């Protein structure tokens, strides 16, 4: 069995190392700013956001990457039901532009997948670039029968089995699962979404 390390450090030549750790409450402002910078302020309107709205990330599966004390990457996984199959959805993954050639994104993904497997999760799905995610074992082989609550490109809906056969027969709508946010936080998130400029 693969051992999960609490902190993963990567070095790249003369560049400062980065460390991956569990997300903390103190990361929220920097995380949100990073996500806005990477995906735009209308990111709340994306289809996969429907799977996160009003819910908390899966326990122990929200991670931050830091370099010289600054948050440079973020990745979270969320409970979903993929048809009748319990799974996780990965995302959003964001890396600060200054660190994109350091392997931060790949390290976050590998760290998160090991953590998910150690916690007994059996499958992960995501909406993303197939050539990039194929290196981690994701493919569209078993996601053809799944749908998302909004527009999406079929070839970008990918899955990874952490246990053999976990996505066998997966079909139907992918819907959120897991713990709901307290109503006050959920209300604030909805107001922010409604206040965001609409995409043309």
From TrEMBL:
UniProt GO MF annotations: acyltransferase activity, transferring groups other than amino-acyl groups
Keyword presence, Coiled coil: no
InterPro entries on file: Acyl_CoA_acyltransferase, GNAT_dom
Keywords associated with the record: Transferase
Tree of life domain: Bacteria
Family matches, as Gene3D superfamilies: 3.40.630.30
N-acetyltransferase domain sequence ranges: 18-163
PROSITE patterns associated with the record: GNAT
Protein name as catalogued: Predicted N-acetyltransferase YhbS
């Amino acid at each position: 069995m693969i051992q999960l390390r609490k902190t993963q450090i990567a070095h790249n030549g003369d560049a400062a190392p980065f460390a991956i750790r569990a997300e903390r409450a103190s990361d929220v402002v920097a995380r949100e700013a990073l996500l806005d910078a990477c995906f735009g302020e209308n990111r709340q309107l994306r289809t996969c956001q429907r799977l996160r709205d009003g819910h908390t990330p899966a326990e122990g599966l929200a991670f931050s990457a830091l370099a010289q004390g600054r948050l440079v990457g973020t990745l979270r996984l969320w409970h979903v039901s993929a048809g009748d199959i319990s799974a996780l959805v990965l995302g959003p993954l964001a890396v600060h532009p200054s660190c994109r050639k350091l392997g931060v994104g790949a390290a976050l993904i590998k760290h998160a997948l090991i953590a998910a497997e150690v916690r007994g999760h059996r499958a992960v799905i995501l909406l993303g670039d197939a050539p990039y995610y194929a290196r981690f074992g994701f493919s569209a082989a078993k996601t053809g029968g799944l749908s998302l609550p909004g527009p999406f490109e079929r070839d970008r809906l990918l899955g990874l089995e952490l246990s053999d056969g976990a996505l066998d027969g997966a079909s139907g709508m992918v819907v959120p699962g897991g713990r709901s946010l307290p109503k006050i936080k959920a209300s604030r998130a909805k107001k922010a979404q409604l206040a965001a400029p609409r995409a043309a």
